[in-house]
Specification:
- Keywords: Membrane, Repeat, Transmembrane, Transmembrane helix.
- InterPro entries: E_motif (IPR046848), PPR_At4g14850-like_plant (IPR046960), PPR_rpt (IPR002885), PROP1-like_PPR_dom (IPR033443), TPR-like_helical_dom_sf (IPR011990).
- The chain crosses the membrane at residues 312-328, 348-370, 524-540, 560-582.
- PPR repeats lie at residues 172-202, 208-242, 311-345, 523-557.
- The protein has 763 residues and is an all-alpha fold.
- The chain has a domain at 696-763.
- Helices cover 69% and strands 2% of the residues.
- The chain is built from 42 helices and 2 strands.
- It has a two-stranded antiparallel sheet with strand order 1-2.
- Strand 1 and strand 2 form a beta hairpin.
- Helix 37 runs antiparallel to helix 38 and helix 39 (643-656) runs antiparallel to helix 40.
- The chain is elongated, with a radius of gyration of 35 Å.
- Mean pLDDT is 80; it is low at 166-170, 468-472 and 742-763.
């Protein structure tokens, strides 16, 4: 009879089954059996019927109380997220004449964790001591977990240290695991690793593997992927065989490092296949992300296409990867396949989809998906979706619609959204929107000097030079610097880095250097920021000197550092040193070349006249050359009069930047300098045939507090006649002095001729 009832309980799947089983227990007088009653309570709890279980328990606990049944009821309540009720059951143990045992306390402490009821936890700790169970493995583990979960790691460590023979008894491995997990949970993987290295027991134990994995995951979650990988390698040296969870953790670390550890990621991929885990969806998803972050989108696609089963995470990961790499059309094609496969997208999927629309500029499709996610898929818009949509509209020039969406969304706009609007106002020259965006950004990110610089560019593009100069006035930066000192934040490295960037962007390189030299601690970002600042201001030699100091300080440079270093070499014209650093970054520092590094190197070679070498580097690099690279070659061909290279560069630039009149003008100048006037005229004709309009030439000068601007073709300046007369006099004096203008610098593509002089009004 007991076996039959046990069989019935194992196969219950709904409330009717539970009621039938209970009726059978009552009819056969088995409802007082502690084991069967406990099994019944477990069945109810696992199905979510904790209230029914409690009603049956309440009837039986008064007449036939047993601690085993009470423990089962407490455990069942915690499983059903009824922590408060679980503690009430725990409290009632004493009222029926029972005493909590070594299982009662852990179950009750789990309820304390769920409620974050620290005071109750300390009371239960005291009760465990009174019961003489303060050294019991299960109780100690539960206490450590409780204190760790409530961010009381020092109390957890005290419990651990006070356990007899905790440092040598291999039977207490569960206690060590709890303590290590506590440190990991609270963001201290270093102490966790120290404990792990002293943990007793056989290194091949499953418990030990779980602990190694938790430490790897802890480092990865703390954005310390190098340490995570080091622990993974050490684990194998200790003959601990990683399982799929461990590989998932280390793949997460590889994904953070991107191209730096692509080889390790490929090795783990091979290991996954060797162990027969290659059809595990979670690992496949992690591999897609790892390959994507390392820049190997083809491998990411290969993994995805060879999956026999795909979840929504699989589809979302590859769509995000394609969108991130600028392959918006492919990303949207994959999303269409996802819909056809009847896999319901989630909120993260639509962030990727809307980002893809922004990359391709598909405004109507973006609007459709933005509305479809709510009304077709029932997914509520989050602030990230609004951010993607605002970015899409802003890039496409729908500024009024983007601003309207900001005002209508049920969230407080964050810095990312106002940053998108500021960037859009820069693209489309809307100074008023730029002012509005900056007003909010100053409140959200007062330390971000880049926002002021961008607004300054917007004003400059709109010809509002007084506003441009005021937008990034150095006094504002000095006020912020003073505020930082006043609040005692002047030794915070992140703020010091921001001050260096702020002073550099405002043109005050001496103040930037002063901040840098007075730093008591410098990170790689500190060194990189000042090197970039010096290179940007044309102080290439000083920039390279600072980099030498960085090497002597044994601070490892990153990929951004080498962009600054190669730019500095270009400013000074140090070709051999540039070649050395370009190779050293990969073979000495293990940093993979990105397209920006190739761009700097090509610019350096081009400026120095090594045009063949520059072109060879373009053909050898593992990236599709972008407009910046072809622009560097076009500029180099202009400097050195290489019309053929100029033609080649323009052929690519016309495809990449068909709207940029400067490319046609520069090629026209190259032909003119070489005396090939027919080709020069042809370049200008090609520009007109494609409907590209040339922006008129302009310059400006500030006299006292007024800024005067001069634009080709405009004669509206109030002192036009006087200026024209002065220039005529200067021209006559030049002739008398037998000075001939250098024709190479004439604006050959000007429609009004080099002899014509035009002006505009001041403001």
């Amino acid at each position: 009879m007991r076996e039959r009832l046990g069989f019935l309980l194992k196969h219950c799947s709904n409330l009717k089954h539970v009621e039938t089983a209970h009726g059978f227990m009552v009819r056969t007088a088995l409802h007082h059996d502690k084991l069967l009653l406990s099994q019944f309570i477990e069945t109810c709890s696992s199905l979510g019927f904790s209230a029914y279980a409690h009603s049956v328990f309440s009837v039986n606990s008064q007449s036939h109380p047993h601690i085993y049944v009470f423990n089962t009821m407490i455990k069942g309540m915690t499983l059903c997220n009824s922590a408060f009720e679980a503690l009430l059951v725990y409290k009632s143990i004493g009222r029926v004449g029972l005493r909590p045992d070594c299982y009662s306390f852990p179950f009750a402490l789990k309820a304390v964790v769920d409620l974050r009821a620290m005071s109750l936890g300390t009371q239960i700790h005291s009760q465990a001591i009174c019961a003489g169970l303060e050294s019991n493995v299960h109780v100690v583990s539960a206490l450590i977990q409780m204190y760790s979960s409530c961010a009381r790691i020092s109390d957890a460590r005290k419990v651990f240290d006070e356990m007899p023979l905790a440092s040598v008894c291999s039977d207490n491995v569960v206690v060590w695991m709890a303590m290590i997990a506590g440190y990991v949970k609270l963001g201290d993987p270093d102490t966790a690793m120290d404990l792990l290295s002293r943990m007793p027991g056989t290194q091949t134990d499953g418990a030990v593997l779980i602990t190694w994995t938790s430490v790897i995951a802890g480092y990865a979650q703390m954005d310390r992927p190098d340490e995570a990988i080091a622990v993974f390698l050490k684990m194998q040296l200790e003959n601990v065989v990683p399982d799929e969870i461990a590989m998932l953790a280390v793949l997460s670390a590889c994904a953070q490092l991107g191209a730096f550890h692509i080889r390790l990621g490929e090795c783990i991929h091979g290991y996954v296949k060797k162990r027969g885990f290659d059809q595990m969806v979670t690992l496949k998803n992690a591999l897609i992300e790892m390959y994507s972050n390392s820049g190997n989108i083809s491998n990411a696609l290969h993994v995805f296409e060879n999956m026999t089963r795909r979840t929504v995470i699989s589809w979302t990961t590859i769509i995000s990867a394609l969108a991130f790499h600028g392959l918006g059309t492919q990303a949207l094609d994959v999303f269409s396949r996802m819909e056809m496969a009847q896999v319901k997208p989630n909120d993260i999927t639509f962030i990727a989809v809307l980002s893809a629309c922004a990359h391709v500029g598909l405004v109507d499709l973006g609007r459709y998906y933005f509305h479809a996610m709510k009304y077709r898929y029932g997914i509520q818009h989050e602030i990230q979706h609004y951010g993607c949509m605002i970015d899409l509209l802003g890039q496409a020039g729908y500024l009024a619609e983007a601003l309207k969406l900001v005002s209508e969304m049920p969230f407080q706009p964050n810095a990312a959204i106002w940053g998108s609007l500021l960037a859009a106002s820069n693209i489309h020259g809307d100074a008023e929107l730029g002012e509005l965006a900056l007003l909010h950004l100053v409140q959200l990110e007062p330390w971000n000097s880049g926002n002021y610089a961008l607004l300054s560019n917007i004003y400059a593009s709109a010809g509002r030079w007084d506003k441009s100069l005021g937008a990034f006035h150095i006094r504002l930066g000095e006020c912020i610097h003073g505020y930082v000192k006043k609040r005692g934040f002047d030794q915070m490295v992140t703020l010091k880095n921001a001050l260096i960037e702020m002073y550099s962007n405002s043109g005050n390189i001496s103040n930037a250097l002063h901040v840098f030299e007075n730093m008591t601690r410098r990170t790689v970002i500190s060194w990189t920021t000042i090197i970039s600042a010096l290179a940007f201001h044309g102080l290439g030699t000083q920039a390279l000197d600072v980099f030498s100091r960085m090497e002597m300080a044994q601070v490892k440079p990153n990929d951004i550092t080498f962009i600054a270093v190669l730019s500095a070499c270009a400013h000074v014209g140090l070709v051999d040193l540039g070649r050395y650093y370009f190779h050293a970054m990969k073979y000495r520092y293990g940093i993979q070349h990105e397209i920006q590094h190739y761009g700097c190197m090509i610019d350096l070679l081009g400026q120095a006249g090594y045009l063949a070498e520059a072109l060879k580097l373009v053909s050898e690099m593992p990236f599709q050359p972008n407009a910046a690279i072809w622009g560097s070659l076009l500029a180099a061909s202009n400097i050195h009069g290489d019309a053929e290279l100029g033609e080649l560069a323009l052929l690519h630039l016309v495809q990449l930047e068909p709207w940029n009149s400067g490319n046609y003008a520069l090629l026209s100048n190259i032909y003119a300098s070489a005396g090939r006037w027919d080709k020069s005229v042809m370049a200008r004709k090609l520009m007109r045939d494609k409907g590209v309009r040339k922006m008129p030439g302009w310059s400006f000068i500030q006299v006292s507090t007024r800024t005067h601007e001069f634009i080709a073709g405009d004669t509206s300046h109030p002192q036009f006649d006087r200026i024209h007369g002065t220039l005529f006099t200067l021209n006559e004096q030049m002739k008398t002095a037998h000075y001939d203008p250098i024709n190479e610098f004439d604006n050959h593509d000007s429609d009004i001729g080099p002899a014509s002089i035009s002006y505009c009004s001041s403001f």
